[in-house]
Specification:
The protein has two domains: 3-121, Ribosomal Protein S5, domain 2 (2-Layer Sandwich), CATH 3.30.230.20; 127-301, 2-Layer Sandwich (lpxc deacetylase, domain 1). It is built from seven helices and 20 strands. It has helices at 77-85, 108-117, 178-183, 192-200, 231-244, 262-273, 286-289; strands at 3-5, 9-14, 21-28, 35-39, 48-50, 56-57, 64-66, 72-74, 91-95, 119-121, 127-131, 135-139, 142-147, 152-159, 167-173, 189-191, 213-216, 219-220, 251-258, 279-283. The strands form five sheets. Strands 11, 12, 13, 14, 15, 19 and 20 form a seven-stranded mixed β-sheet that branches. α1 (77-85) crosses α2 and α1 crosses α5 (231-244). It is globular and about 50 Å long.
């Protein structure tokens, strides 16, 4: 069955790139509504944006969506991952600025807020996107691929010269509460030199050692160190969950990412939907529905940091 929130969940913080304070309220929505953002700081024109693969526009370092009136919301990937990982298909997200608050740099605060608000089952079947044939896109050494599977799986690999990161690989079956338990608390990460470079270009103005893991060579500069020894690859998987949620429904398939990022994953979705015979929408029965991400998630699944 489809799900929405039982009541609104409110989040306040700063945008990672803008540094501006923002309030975001995730509200219940009827069955079949999908995920929409609404800019409450704007009073003229169309202020609503559908969170879907074909509203994504090119952006540096984050996922940004835009409607036909030019209204945008950026850095949506962490809240989208939290919604998908909590099995919430319908929500209206009111936001009084152009960027989703970064909070602690992970999805865990969003998941905690959703579980505190409660999740309500709706009288409508979930529509899932079944992958029927492999589809792949590349950009140099970076690869993103979708291929058939009876459940949602992610296989990801990263490779950094920094000794504190290095090469990391991880594969997960995202059924049920796996996202919440294994990925939701993994924070965005960057190298200290990149932080200085971004700030010089007017980016990452809201970034701190508290909402991102900052590396320098073989050192972790953020207080408290890592939440997981492989936190960087886990966060890349978290990002992929959020970006793939823009397909418009849960995916039954295996996603493989090798050095992939937001832009490449969106290219993959565009290639998928442009490939006849590679996909189909279907309503899922009880057996398939029971294996979807977030089904049966409980507050006990939340990591200690949430």
């Amino acid at each position: 069955m489809q799900n929405t929130l039982s009541k609104a969940a409110t989040f306040r913080g700063t945008g990672l790139h803008s540094g501006a304070s923002v309030t975001m309220v995730v509200r219940p929505a009827p069955a079949g509504h999908g995920i929409w953002f609404r800019r409450t700081d704007l009073t003229e024109g169309d202020t609503r944006i559908l969170a879907r693969w074909d509203t994504v526009v090119p952006s540096k370092l984050c996922t940004l969506i835009e409607n036909d009136s030019g209204v945008t919301v950026s850095t949506i990937e962490h809240v989208m991952a939290a919604l998908a990982g909590s099995a919430i298909q319908n929500a209206l997200i009111d936001i009084d600025g152009p960027e989703v608050p970064i909070l602690d740099g992970s999805s865990a605060p969003f998941v905690a807020g959703f579980l505190a608000a409660g999740i309500t089952r709706q009288n409508a079947q979930v529509r899932v996107l079944r992958i029927l044939a492999p589809v792949e896109v590349r950009d140099g050494d970076a690869v993103a691929r979708l291929e058939p599977s009876d459940m949602f799986e992610i296989d990801f690999a990263i490779d950094f010269t920094d000794a504190a990161i290095g090469r990391q690989e991880k594969r997960l079956n995202l059924s049920n509460g796996t996202f919440v338990r294994e990925l939701s608390d993994s924070r965005t990460f960057c190298r200290n030199a990149d932080v200085q470079n971004m700030r010089a270009r007017g980016l990452a103005l809201g970034g701190t050692f508290e909402n991102a893991v900052v590396f320098e060579g073989d050192r972790v500069l953020s207080p408290g160190g890592l939440r997981h020894a492989d936190e960087p690859v886990r966060h890349k998987m978290l990002d992929a969950v959020g970006d793939l949620a823009l397909a418009g429904g849960p995916i039954l398939g295996r996603y493989t990412g090798i050095r992939a990022g937001h832009a490449l994953t969106n290219r993959l979705l565009r290639q998928l939907f442009a490939t006849p015979g590679a996909w189909r929408w279907q309503e899922c029965g009880a057996l398939t529905g029971a294996k979807l991400p977030g089904v049966g998630v409980h507050v006990a699944d939340l990591p200690a940091c949430a």
